[in-house]
Amino acid sequence: MDVTLDDLARLVGGTVKGDGRTVIRAVNGIREAGPGEITFLANVKYAPLLATTKASAVVLADGTPAPIPTLSVRNPDLAFGKVAEHLGGGAWRPPPGVHPSAVVSPGATVGKNVSIGAGTVVEDGASLGDNAVLYPQVYVGREAVLGAGVLIYPQVVIRERCRVGARVIVHSGTVIGSDGFGYATEGGVHHKIPQVGIVVVEDDVELGANVTVDRARFGRTVIGRGSKIDNLVQIGHNVVLGQGCLLVAQAGVAGSTKVGNYVVMAGQAGLIGHLDVGDQAIITAQTGVTKDVPAKGVMSGSPAQDRRTHLKELASLSKLPEALQEIRRLRREVDELRKKAKG
Amino acid sequence: MDVTLDDLARLVGGTVKGDGRTVIRAVNGIREAGPGEITFLANVKYAPLLATTKASAVVLADGTPAPIPTLSVRNPDLAFGKVAEHLGGGAWRPPPGVHPSAVVSPGATVGKNVSIGAGTVVEDGASLGDNAVLYPQVYVGREAVLGAGVLIYPQVVIRERCRVGARVIVHSGTVIGSDGFGYATEGGVHHKIPQVGIVVVEDDVELGANVTVDRARFGRTVIGRGSKIDNLVQIGHNVVLGQGCLLVAQAGVAGSTKVGNYVVMAGQAGLIGHLDVGDQAIITAQTGVTKDVPAKGVMSGSPAQDRRTHLKELASLSKLPEALQEIRRLRREVDELRKKAKG
Amino acid sequence: MDVTLDDLARLVGGTVKGDGRTVIRAVNGIREAGPGEITFLANVKYAPLLATTKASAVVLADGTPAPIPTLSVRNPDLAFGKVAEHLGGGAWRPPPGVHPSAVVSPGATVGKNVSIGAGTVVEDGASLGDNAVLYPQVYVGREAVLGAGVLIYPQVVIRERCRVGARVIVHSGTVIGSDGFGYATEGGVHHKIPQVGIVVVEDDVELGANVTVDRARFGRTVIGRGSKIDNLVQIGHNVVLGQGCLLVAQAGVAGSTKVGNYVVMAGQAGLIGHLDVGDQAIITAQTGVTKDVPAKGVMSGSPAQDRRTHLKELASLSKLPEALQEIRRLRREVDELRKKAKG
After folding, report:
1. Where does residue B343 rank: exposed (0-12), middle (13-18), buried (19+ CB within 10 A)?
2. Which residues, at least 6 apart from B48, have a Cβ–Cβ distance to it below 8 Å?
């Protein structure tokens, strides 16, 4: 698909510097791009690459100079995303219809324009909203409800009675609605506690690959509207995650913890169970949170502390080897002074 | 299903306080429950909710007072589990029989009353015990042996020759018997070391979602009887895990480590390879164990230490920034004293 | 298969001590082996077991003495691997051909002698090299390219356009080519940034179970030739991993980080995004790297430091509780000395 830089400026609401008639066929990274391709720059770390890129044009933040035709916008990441989608680089989606090898219960409700791929299983009483896309080899359990426009990649499991909102994207290998980890131990035997609740994934959520979200013991485990969850994240039973949260790969949230809106958990961070984490809190990478976190709190370390306190302790720790020597020197000198004072 | 509180007392062996004729239809959480539902309280943190719950009755530990009809028991968690199961809140299970789209080798042995779901594959020489339930899209490898009453959720892989005991539950996405991580490096090439052993999962184990258990290099990787393993846990080759262990989400055990009975590993904790961990040891969250652990040892930190030592160090670290200032003050004062002493 | 110790010596290029006519049927571990089996010893920790093993022979490093017939070699791990493979202990592989329940697009290209298992889906435009083995329930996306001799275990997902090199082994539950985690946030909404790149897995790589490798935003995420990746590892979008790396279970590499050749990441270690990690660097278990790492650097701790610095700090921290007491003693003594000096 060929468009001009002027066309793209109209699409994303930016302004052109240089030749607006430059023809663009595709998007590409600043290192990889060649003639006919548009690239972008969001991270200043890569600014020197503007001098050497072979791209025909670049998407840049307003005011940033560049030696090639430029589409100048407020948010380059966002604008470039729209450009990429317009130029057709998005993922291929299976065509509407039910593949003959899929197994869809006659008791399931299937909306309009739905795609159901090869080997996908939809159990009795399940419901698929309009324009839902289920790739091959997906499992949708009894009475599960999937909203309009969901995009479910191959080999996802959505267990019975769970609810997945509109436009939710779920990547391969992810399991929604596995049993929570709960046992009542008596006489050395761990008796399984039935997990009779469900998972509710609200609208516009995206779940990465090989994520696990356990169903509630009773009631609901909730992933709030517009939250985005990266690969290999664990969400325990009865967790309630707010809206717009970002959970980076391999983070984990233990059972019954409540997480506010727009909370960020970096990679490999963990929250123990039964906590309250306030809105807009930030949990840095590998941090292990064991206490409630106030709104806008920034936590680091394992066990976690307020980030400032943590950095202060780290800084002082780096001075400790020298401080121990100083203590030994002080000891010698004080001993000498005491000897003299007595003498 | 409608029962009275008196009926439930007979079922779980508790005593009723208040109206035993209260009719109960379902279980629910203390916040979510309404009329006709019974709830419970195991964590004192939520005791204030007893005043506001709309539940018709509550399961409580002996001696705890409550303003609503109460089923008083020794172990509320355990009793409530039995009540939930009695009231029919358990997961739906596929009916006995082989789905026409399943691929079961004629050389496989299938017990009585077995369910094999759509798209499930059972290879030659595999054996399924009586009452085994295999959901859709499961893979059972050649000569794998599954015991009576196993419950295997969708998209589980059990590789060739592995053995899974009676009543074992395996959640979706879990892989039993993948190759251990072993290479012999020569001339800059990592040559694969064949992993010719198996995995033995003993009776009454439960494995969460997206767990990985590697087969032994030779001999067996063992998950001991009644152990419970949460989501996204890694068990390396030749690990021997004792009975009744609890491994919380995202924990990992490296190759050839031996773990005793009733060991608890909290979330994101790790054990390096070739260790011995004694019975009833507790490894706290995110702890990284690099040395043998004695029986009943409690380990924290990365690298791990005895928990008391670790807490002492953490406490002293919190005093370090102030201590460094005190050292500087002492230095000034000692220098002054020395000047005077010389003067 | 029966062979003599002399036969095995010719196979692996070692020398025999003791009776070369000893008949060997199978390999086994030093504890498990019995008559007719050959075992080996690579870790000196287990040397005492040589006195009690029931094996008929043992593979040992040159110069190590043993009380039973011995195959003496330079690299016991490597030699034993060859012996195990020769004796036929390797995994069973499905026979060539396409299972009738597999769904292979007429637009896919299938090489010679390929095995495609039950329920496996190969989309339009995909290409499978000669001797490729796809177990049951695998998904190969549109225009994905798999090299000769690949071995893909059940329930692997390879998304559209990704490329997997010759002889690559991928274990169950692994996802290659899921979308990278990228959003442009505006007005409280996280807009998805299209991920239009691919994943390139070079020749002779092995990926463990439940691994996730995200496709690039544009360009390529690369797993370099001969690298070996353990279970549950996360590789973010646009990561470039060099040759011969070893990434142990549950490690994670965030987006756009470049990792050199022969880098080792131990279990549960993490690298944040946009880093450069030099050749032959070693990242110890649970370490969290937040800065570039020089070639041959050894990093520990979270946040990571040079290992020597880290160990020095840990050693000094262990002395801190006592040092705090010493500081209090010094304070008392200095106060006394000052009182006397003034008096």
Report:
1. exposed
2. none
Nearest CA in chain B to A323: B324
CB contact under 8 A, A173 and C212: yes
- Single out the residue of C224, C225, C226 nearest to residue C253, CA to CA: C224
**Window from A149-153, B65-69, C126-130, C150-154 with minimum mean pLDDT:** B65-69
For residues C28 and C14, what is the distance between their CA atoms, to the nearest angstrom?
Answer: 19
Both structure tokens of B47: 């005791």
Which of A224, A231, A219, A174 is CA-nearest to residue A203? A224
Closest CA to B55 of B73, B43, B42, B67: B67
Q: Which positions in chain A touch B317 (Cβ < 8 Å)?
A: 313, 316-317
**pLDDT of residue B294 exceeding 90:** yes
Instruction: Quote helix, strand, coil % in chain A, to nearest 5.
Output: 20, 30, 50
**Does the distance separating the beta carbons of C317 and B317 come in below 8 Å?**
yes
Q: Let me know: does C178 contact C161? Beta carbons within 8 Å.
A: no
Counting Cα atoms < 13 Å in the Cβ hemisphere of A98 gives 16
The CA distance from A156 to the nearest CA of chain C, in Å, is 10
User: Which DSSP category does B293 fall into?
Assistant: B
Residues of chain B with C-beta less than 8 angstroms from the C-beta of A183: 228, 246
CA–CA separation, C87 vs C3, rounded Å? Answer: 8
Three-state DSSP state, C268: coil
Instruction: Specify the residue for token string 């609200």.
Output: A202
Residue A115: phi and psi, rounded to 5, are -105, 130
Distance between CA atoms of residues B307 and A244, nearest Å: 37
- Bridge-partner residues for A16, per DSSP? A71
Chains meeting B at 3+ CB pairs closer than 8 A? Answer: A, C
- Looking only at the bridges linking them, the beta strands covering B183-186 and B189-192 are antiparallel
Other CB atoms within a 10 A radius of the CB of residue C62 amount to 11
For C91, other C-beta atoms within 10 Å of its C-beta total 20
Mean pLDDT score of chain B: 94
Which is catalytic among the residues A99, A237, A274, A310? A237
pLDDT in tens, C312-329: 999 999 999 999 999 999
Residues C284 and C264: their CA atoms lie apart, in Å, by 8
pLDDT given at position C41: 84
Distance CA(C287)–CA(C307), nearest Å, equals 10
For residues A211 and B249, what is the distance between their CA atoms, to the nearest angstrom?
12
How large is the angle between the packed helices C307-318 and C320-342, nearest 10 degrees?
Answer: 60
Query: Angle at Cα B269 formed by Cα B265 and Cα B272, nearest 5°?
Result: 100
Where helices occur in chain A by DSSP H, the ranges are: 5-12, 76-86, 307-342
Chain C contact set for B217 (CB, 8 A): 29
Q: Return the pLDDT at B15.
A: 94
A94: DSSP letter: P
| Nearest CA distance, A150 vs chain C (angstrom) | 14
- Determine the Cα–Cα distance for residues C92 and C96; give it in Å rounded to an integer: 12
